[in-house]
Amino acid sequence: MLVHAFISSRLDYCNQLFVGVSGRLLDKLQSLQNATAHLVTEARKVDHMTPVMREVHWLPVWHRLRFRTAVLMFKYLYGVAWVYLSEYLYCKPTTDNTGHLHL
Question: What is the pLDDT of residues 40-50, one digit of tens each?
Answer without folding.
Answer: 888 888 888 88
